[in-house]
Design a protein that fits this description.
The structure is a single chain. The chain is α/β, with parallel strands linked by helices. The protein contains twelve helices and ten strands. A hairpin with a 6-residue loop joins strand 5 and strand 6. Helix 2 packs across helix 7, helix 3 packs parallel to helix 4 and helix 3 runs parallel beside helix 5.
């Protein structure tokens, strides 16, 4: 009888161990989940490997392989080369306001950053559990990803009104899945994904339960790259208007990481509005460099004695939707612009794009008032009154055919 009881106990232990092993096997790593979403093979022992046999995933993988190969040759390699040539000593932190889930260009411009802070209205969403998707639904989830990233693959920016629909569809939703796709396709290894929120003082707290109504919620992603060393990306879903940042704690959080390098592109000219003056003033105070297209900080808001300007490309004026945002001083500055071989922003064609690198001068480097007046370098010209002849309005903005639809 004793032997029978002993054997029963051993059998029960084996069953428990098997159950625990099965439960562990049902948990996919963050990196394997990201790789499946990015159309890349997960680790050989991943419980997600069976998904790679699905024809929908195989189509997704082929599509993204082709799309990112084109993007690398047409855009990203050129952006990285531009950054290597023109950014001498980047700071460890970069800020990217109005970013959406655009890690691609954050990494291309500031690939040496150790901390990335991205912020936009789009919700971050939860880490997808691909093992819990209903049978046969992976194809729909992957198609939604393809549709969501289509414009940035083609034109370097997201369309906000489309994102409001795309990022709320299905069980793989929010900005997080797109961030993971871009990070994997940028050669990163995802170590951990943690939901976070900010308190009023800018403190970071894991989780987002019982948060204040206007508390910035988001994710913290720790990752490594080919360069080695652990790095961090924060993405916060938050209102960047004056009323939104007044007590959210977001700018206090950013202040703790300053000075930083900043990127602004395709920002709907929001920083031209008085309703976004808090974020605009924050960037001007806490940035060592700012890379922007003309939708960023208006030239008139920079203090010419504190910044040196390096214009690239061609200022063709805003697209028709923002025709009232034409800047005469910007046009004058870009008469001395250096060429660039890639497109960026709303005017995404290379021969129409503009990019301004603004570098903050150290106090001892700031020119005197006399030198500023007499300068003929790339410092900003003094604001001038509009000329009698009204500038010719830019050509209407037209969308070329999208190539990502099946």
């Amino acid at each position: 009888m004793f032997n029978a009881m002993k054997m029963a106990a051993i059998a029960a232990s084996l069953i428990l161990v098997a159950a625990l092993d099965a439960r562990a096997a049902d948990t996919a790593s963050a990196d394997d989940t990201a790789r499946i979403l990015a159309g890349m093979q997960p680790s050989a022992d991943s419980p997600l490997m069976p998904l790679t046999k699905d024809p929908a995933w195989q189509h997704h993988a082929r599509f993204l392989d082709g799309a990112f190969a084109q993007l690398e040759a047409r855009q990203l390699a050129k952006v990285r080369a531009w950054a290597d040539t023109n950014l001498a000593a980047p700071k460890p932190t970069m800020f990217y306001m109005f970013s959406g889930p655009d890690f691609l260009y954050a990494n291309a411009f500031y690939g040496k950053a150790s901390t990335y802070v991205l912020a936009a209205l789009e919700p971050s969403g939860a880490m997808p559990d691909l093992l819990r998707l209903p049978r046969g639904s992976i194809g729909t989830a992957l198609y939604n990803i393809e549709h969501s990233i289509g414009t940035i693959l083609n034109f370097s920016f997201f369309i906000t009104k489309h994102m409001k629909v795309d990022l709320h569809v299905g069980q793989v939703s929010g900005a997080l899945p797109l961030l993971l796709v871009f990070m994997e396709r940028s050669g990163k290894f995802i170590r951990e994904v943690t939901p976070v929120m900010l308190d009023e003082g800018g403190g970071v707290h894991a989780g987002n339960e019982a948060a204040r109504p206007n508390a910035p919620r988001g994710v913290r992603i720790t990752f490594t790259g080919e360069e080695g060393g652990e790095r961090t990306l924060y993405y916060f879903s938050t209102d960047l208007s004056n009323s939104g940042v007044k007590s959210s704690g977001f700018l206090k959080f950013c202040e703790g990481l300053a000075p930083a390098n900043s990127l602004i592109k395709s920002a709907s000219y929001l920083l031209h509005s008085g309703n976004f003056s808090a974020v605009r003033d924050f960037l001007l105070t806490n940035s060592a460099t700012i890379i922007q297209d003309d939708s960023g900080v208006p030239l008139a808001n920079y203090k010419s004695k504190a910044w040196r300007f390096f214009p690239f490309g061609r200022y063709a004026g805003p697209i028709g939707e923002f025709s009232g945002k034409y800047q005469q001083s910007y046009a004058e500055l870009f008469r001395r612009a250096q060429p660039m071989d890639f497109g960026i922003g709303y005017r995404w064609r290379a021969y129409e794009s503009n990019l301004l690198l603004a570098v903050r001068l150290a106090a001892e480097e700031a020119p005197s008032a006399e030198a500023t007046t007499a300068s003929t370098d790339t410092s900003a010209p003094a604001p001038s009154k509009p000329k009698p002849r009204k500038p010719k309005p830019p050509a209407p903005f037209g969308w070329p055919g999208f190539f990502w639809f099946r």
